[in-house]
Each structure stands twice: as C-alpha cells, then as structure tokens.
Amino acid sequence: MSDTLSMPHRDDAERLGAPVGERVAPPPGCWRLARGERHLLIERRALGVGLLLLAVLLAASLAYLCLGQQSLSPAGAFSALRGEGDAMAVFVVQELRLPRLLAAWLTGAAFALAGCLMQTLARNRLATPGIIGIDNGATAFSVASVVGLGVSLAPPAMAMVGAATAAAITFGVASGGDTRGYRFIVAGIGIGAVFGAVTQLLLARVDIDTANAAYPWTVGTLNARSSGAVTGLALGLALAGPLAIALARSLSLMRFGDAVARGLGVELRRRRVQVLALSVLLTALAVAVAGPVGMVALIGPEIARSLASPRGVPLTASALAGALVMVLADLTGRLLLAPIELPVGIVTAVVGGPWLLWILLRTAKRTSP
Length: 369
Prior knowledge:
- The protein has 16 helices and three strands.
- It is mainly α.
- The protein has a three-stranded antiparallel sheet.
- The longest helix is centred in the N-terminal third of the chain and has 36 residues.
- It is globular and about 60 Å long.
C-alpha cells in the first residue's frame, strides 16, 4: 500500500537520536510491525480507506450478479456461484455475469492505477492516459489490426504497440520527456487528437460489417471482451501492481519537485521511465479488454485522494476505486435502458465529463487573484 514504508530499525533510531536497539514510537496515525532490524509502518487511515472501498466494491459486485433481465436474490446468486440451484441461474451467473464482472474489476483497477501513476509523474491531476493520448494510440492501432490487417494479428498486442507509440511521441514533443506543467498535457491532447482522427479515417474507408467489428474498440465496452486479453490483463496487473507499490516512496517524494526528490536520493530519470512504462503497460492491457474508457483513470484517483491521507500516493485505493467505478458504470449501462445495453465508455463519459469540468473550474478558482 502506498502509505506503508520500510526502513532499517537501526538507522531510524539513530536518526531520531534514540539509542540503537531501543524501540522508537511510530508516527501519529501509524502502526509499526517490526521484525529484527526491519520494520513496517502501516497508516491506519489508508488501511481503513482500503477496507471501506473493498467492502463497497464487494457489495456492488453482489448487486451486479443479482440484477439484470433475470433478477436473482443474493442467496440465489451465491448458490449459482457454487453451481447449485436453477440451471438457467447458474448459466447466467457463471457464464455471463461473473466473467464480465471480473473484466470490470481488472480494467477499472488498471485504468485508475495507470491514471494515479501518470498524475503523480506529471504532478498534474489532468494527466491521465486518456487525456494525454495513450488511450487513443492504443485504440487506433487496435482498430487498424481489425479493419486493415485482420483480427488474427491480435488487437491486444497492437494496443500495446499503440500505447507505447503515443507515449513516446508525447514525451518527445514535450521537450525531451519533460512531464511538468501544461506543456505535457497540451502535447498529449494534440497527439491524442491525431490518433483519434486516424481511427475515424480507418473506419470511414471500410465496409459496414468490418466497421461494426471494430466498433467496440472505439467506445469502450465489456460486451465484446476477449478471454485471452482478460488473462493477459490479470497477469499484467499482478506484475505491475507490486512494482508500483515498490515505487511508492519515490512517487511520494516526486510530488515535491525535482530538487527535493534528488536531495532525498530519488533517481528521477530512472523513476520516470519506470512509472511511464507501468502506465503504458496497464493502459494498453486495459484498452485491449474494454477499449478506451479513459474517464476511469480520472475519477478513480480523485475518489481515492478525497478519502486517503495526503501523506502518500493512494495507489491501492485508486485501484479499488477504479474497479468500483467500472462495476457501477457497467451495471448502470446494463439496467438503464434494458434490454438495450449502453457501452460502459458512454456511461463513464457522461459522469466523467462534468467531473473534469468541476476539477478545471475549482483549479481556476483557487489560482485566480
């Protein structure tokens, strides 16, 4: 979790002026777990926020399994999960709703974690993968693999190439990889617009059947997910999540500026490359499953920051909040105009658009004289 940190017990005692070997009281609001000369500090508020978000996520997931054209009671949903009870209920839960729910968990967590990493890297709350063009790059390459070269060339792999390409071009345009300020944001918006135009051009030059096959990659939906892409996302999240948490201390220090971070021992260039690589990996894998659902990368970290302590970067809370947003958005899309389903990307855009305007207006109000 981002709010935990580990350091040698001996160094901690010397730094605080206590005799070596004597236990030093943990900072206010933290618990200490010690083993030998190593100790772990756990922030109570961060732990509470994580448990709260997890509980709400589980409740929303139960509602996801129960609600739909065939409604089930909670007891009926649990029975269907175990393969018991009515055969139709078992089919609906295990074959239709549960795989889609798992995809919502994974994509929401990946988008929000990537957003939190990118915002911390750029020190800007607007610097999400969707806004700086990474989503559009992944989408353009995925659509190209469908409409131009055939689905056999794996749109998920092409999404990875597109995300990396968009990130590299954005950093190149933004003066040699400088991620600070609005220059980086403007460069990303421009690159995203170019890739968006490429996607529309590709769709305009093919027949209607091919365009329909590529349509899910352009709006964001969990209805046309690939089981292989979901497996790849699960593996990628299992790899990137712990790596992101391992960078939590450096990320916390990077928020205070380059001089402070360097003075405290952070290798900025190396850390920026690592954080960017993780963001691109998570975004590409999530786009490969659900298409561009970029607003989750904005909403998830904002929810986490509003609940968590300002001491650290809320990586775990962002992932849980992103999963919650994706589950609720997809559930809303299934139920709102049933039996017609709204793509999850449309639902998050309707919610995320006003949220983005609120962030911009609040920031402008704070900076105005």
